[in-house]
């Protein structure tokens, strides 16, 4: 009986993920008919949550930042930048999803503070689509060497 329930739950999870992938891709291509890259950056749970709760913010008001309180943002490391930013700024909300730029939707992380999107990479985005997440969920993207660099910065 328990094995049967386990397989039913697992199959439901797989089907939900497949359906969510397709539905998200369809919604995003209605805004910009470009490829969607990076579904592998999300858990099945995140994809299903995104499918049910996310919406596209097209041509948003964005504040581009190069650092958080003088701790520099690293080019191409959006998850890491947002994670460390959340450690330095109290009212920062972490978001994970897709952002559109240069002809494709890409897996991305950004922050929101007081209703403004905080972009931590030097790339200008046309649109964002995602969900708010617990900032601690971004920690698994951070390498030990980056954590040491951050701890060193904090002790200065």
Characterise the protein shown here.
By secondary structure, the chain is an alpha+beta fold. It has one domain (about 1-155). It is built from 4 helices and 9 strands, in the order αβαββββαββββα. The protein has helices at about 1-30, 45-55, 80-90, 145-155, and strands at about 35, 55-60, 60-65, 65-70, 70, 95-100, 105-115, 115-120, 125-135. Strands 1, 2, 3, 6, 7, 8 and 9 form a 7-stranded mixed sheet that branches. Strand 6 and strand 7 form a beta hairpin. Helix 1 packs across helix 2 (about 45-55). The longest helix has 30 residues, at about 1-30. The N and C termini lie far apart (about 60 Å). The mean pLDDT is about 90.
Would you kindly provide a brief summary of this structure?
With 156 residues, the chain is of the alpha+beta class. Helix content is 40%, strand content 27%.
Comma- or semicolon-separated keywords:
globular, 27% strand, seven-stranded mixed beta sheet, 40% helix, 156 residues, 4 helices, alpha+beta
> Uncertain regions: pLDDT < 50 for 5+ in a row?
none
Radius of gyration: 17 Å
The main β sheet shows up as: 7 strands, mixed
First and last CA, distance: 58 Å
Average pLDDT reading: 90
The total of helices stands at 4
Residue share in β-strands: 25-35%
Beta-strand segment tally: 9
H/E element string?
Answer: HEHEEEEHEEEEH
Counting helices, strands and paired strands, the structural category is alpha+beta
Global shape: globular
> What's the number of structural domains?
1
Helix content: 40-55%
């Amino acid at each position: 009986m328990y094995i049967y329930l386990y397989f039913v739950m697992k199959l439901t999870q797989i089907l939900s993920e497949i359906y969510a992938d397709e539905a998200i891709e369809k919604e995003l291509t209605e805004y910009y008919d470009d490829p969607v890259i990076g579904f592998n950056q999300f858990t099945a749970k995140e994809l299903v949550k995104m499918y049910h709760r996310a919406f596209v913010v097209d041509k948003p008001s964005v504040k581009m930042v190069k650092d958080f309180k003088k701790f520099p943002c690293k080019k191409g490391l959006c998850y890491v930048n947002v994670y460390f930013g959340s450690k330095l700024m109290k009212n920062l909300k972490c978001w994970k999803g897709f952002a559109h730029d240069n002809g494709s939707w890409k897996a991305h992380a950004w922050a929101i503070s007081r209703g403004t999107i905080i972009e931590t990479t030097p790339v200008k985005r046309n649109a964002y689509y995602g969900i708010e997440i617990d900032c601690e969920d971004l920690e698994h993207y951070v390498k030990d060497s980056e954590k040491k660099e951050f701890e060193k910065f904090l002790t200065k």
